[in-house]
Amino acid sequence: MQNQPDWQRDGARHVWMPYTQMKTAGVPWPVVATDGVYVTLASGERLIDGVASWWTACHGYNHPHIIAAIERQLKIMPHVMFGGIHHEPALRLAKRLSQLLPGDLNHVFFADSGSVSVEIALKMAVQYWLNQGFAGRNRFISFENSYHGDTSGAMSVCDPDNSMHAHFKGFLLEQYPHKIPRTATDCQAFEKFVAERVDRLAGAIIEPLIQGAGGMRFHNPESLSMIRQVCNQHGLLLIADEIATGFGRTGTMFACQQADVVPDIMCIGKSLTGGAIGMAAAVATTGVFEAFLAEDTSSALMHGPTFMANPLACAAAGASLDLFETEPRLAQVQKIETALRQGLAPCRDLPGVVDVRVLGAVGVVQLQQLEHREKLMEKYRQLGVLIRPTKDVVYLTPPLVISENQLQKLCSTLVFGLQEWSAGDE
Ligand SMILES: Cc1ncc(COP(=O)(O)O)c(C=O)c1O
């Protein structure tokens, strides 16, 4: 193909891309640099990133404070294993996270990706029961339209029918999916469902307030409270997967806080490092942690990713937390919410649009259906923005530092692109 840089022409056929049919997919766009809210392509085009690299770049790209922290750490110790030894960046970060997280989520188990943190959370919950002599409590309540990652434990708690992992039924552990309770009647039905299976259940896992990759669906804080209440009633551990929603995205630092709910285990990732480098964690309450304490090692948590607590990632995460303290991120989220409500409202009048919803710095345009997603993405590229629709939604999760003008451009471009799209100009 014309105009491809050497590294792309020679290397692209050796890379297996995510979520991609490699036979039919077009050539991915080569990105050569990032800064602020922009990604720069090899062609020189600068696109406003409407999705903050899958919800990660909350402070924008290349924030100097995060870069400086990584550079400092890079010269001292880029990596060291975490087995039997530990280090200052990890300990400082664990303490800060436990202070920041709600309730007594005080025990931080570091991981290298969100999916792995979900695996760890599930394992913690199962072993919590094992350590107390309950061998059969090893299944989970999961929820319709949920998405928790791509490793097999995480896949098992995704929606078994309506997720990209649906064809792995039979390979995956069978869990107990249920719809999210939204009313008192729903809650009664949910409670009955749990009561009938309680001997098999270790816990429940939920993406609080926003279900992301399963279709960008919202639920109210009340739903979360009801789930917490039913978990309490039956002694189930509640796992909150805040990998996408954590760190300000929904308007509070963590989505659970809007329901005043403290989970027993919380998974965090994505924006944890300001999106600069991969890191995640499963954070447990004191009660969960103490269930693993004994004189012998058989009740210890046997898990340890090679790159857990990577010092560069810890440094980046520490710097990201500094920015949450020193810069007005939550106030910015409020402004983004208002601007998204206004900016996306015109979509309501477009044919094929069935819903427009906004929560915090997440704006969603729900379509009846969306075919040729890549072509729509390409159209947006030509208009100067990076928007990557998923399933039947076109959504925005911009960097939280996006300016008013940039956001306006993002929204108006999203609307214009869809207008042209629905007029059949694809
Ligand atoms: C809610 C949620 N959980 C888990 C994951 C998996 O995280 P990772 O891609 O870092 O493995 C994601 C990723 O999008 C997510 O949105």
Task: Write up this protein.
This protein has 426 residues and is α/β, with parallel strands linked by helices. The protein folds into two domains: 6-59 and 328-422, Aspartate Aminotransferase, domain 1 (Alpha-Beta Complex), CATH 3.90.1150.10; 64-326, Type I PLP-dependent aspartate aminotransferase-like (Major domain) (Aspartate Aminotransferase, domain 2). It is 36% helix and 17% strand. It contains 13 helices and 16 strands. It has helices spanning 6-11, 52-55, 64-76, 88-100, 114-130, 152-156, 184-197, 221-234, 286-290, 311-326, 329-344, 373-382, 404-422, and strands spanning 31-35, 38-41, 46-49, 105-111, 139-143, 176-178, 201-206, 210-211, 217-218, 237-241, 265-268, 280-285, 353-359, 362-367, 385-386, 393-396. Strands 4-12-11-10-7-5-6 form a seven-stranded mixed β-sheet, sandwiched between helices. Strands 1-2-3-15 form a four-stranded mixed β-sheet. A hairpin with a 2-residue loop joins strand 13 (353-359) and strand 14. Helix 4 runs parallel beside helix 10, helix 7 packs parallel to helix 8 (221-234) and helix 11 (329-344) packs parallel to helix 13. The longest helix is centred in the last third of the chain and has 19 residues, at 404-422. The chain is globular. It starts with 5 loop residues before the first helix and ends with a helix. Pyridoxal-5'-phosphate (PLP) is lined by residues 54, 113-115, 118, 147-149, 207, 212-213, 241, 243-244, 269, 280.
